[in-house]
Amino acid sequence: MEPSLASYLALSGILFTIGAAGVIFKRNAIGMFMCIELMLNAVNLTFVAFSRYYADVTGQLFVFMVMSVAAAEAAVGLGIIIAFFRNRISVDVDDASILKN
Amino acid sequence: MTTALFFLFAGLAIACAISMVYHKNPLYSAISLIGVFIALSCIYVTLAAPFIAAVQVLIYAGAIMVLVIFVIMLLNLDEDRPLSRLNYLYGVGAGLGLVLLVQTLFIFYAVARSPKQPVTQGETVGRTLSIGSAMYTKYLLPVEIVGVLLLMAIIGAVILVRRLNQPELELVVAEELTRRHEEEEIGDYRITI
After folding, report:
1. CATH architecture designation of domain B1-79
2. Who among A45, A57, A82 is closest to B134 (CB)?
């Protein structure tokens, strides 16, 4: 017996919620980055679950696309974090305040 | 059997996700996130998607997390210390999390009430052959766009981390840092090199 589609969606929603809360709770940029990765993974789970329950390959294809975008995001995001650290000696997002005032 | 495996790996994923948000040390967070990725990959196997499961382990747990851990080690990050002046954000975060959780439960309720979608035994859906043939026939344009996006990301990352010769900018940053250190005596949460 297979679990219903709703249980996969619920798991995905819970993971997305934890990721979204983490983005708000975390102080350092790398922690926020990892929480965003968690949210992307939660969405991937819904894609695969729908793909299974409708027997359509499109969902799995778009998981592949999301993974490519996540890889690009990792490269650019970590580049930004390194450039920020070089200027501020910190990865705390509260120190990114040069546009403030 | 599948249900038992689902609940096992779902519990593992949720526990690892909570541990990721809870830990202050970024390295512990990263290792917890790898746990989430592995648990999700096991769930993909139970969803008859072996290709996605393999790619999940290879790209996420392999490539992306290695990059993240490499950066954590490179920057020699200290523990994440909360700032007292931003305490109210914890309340905001908890409230937003609660709203999202209610939305989740509403989805659960709506899907559970909707007519049952029969589990189709599409044996070929998750196979590499069907994914590959769909990727290079029907969805050729999105694949090409993703390729261009990856190229742009490579170029952008190289340009971002290039060391610029801008003495004026460095002067501005140094002034700003000294000003801030004078302003607040408790500057010790910042990492010193």
Report:
1. Up-down Bundle (1.20)
2. A57
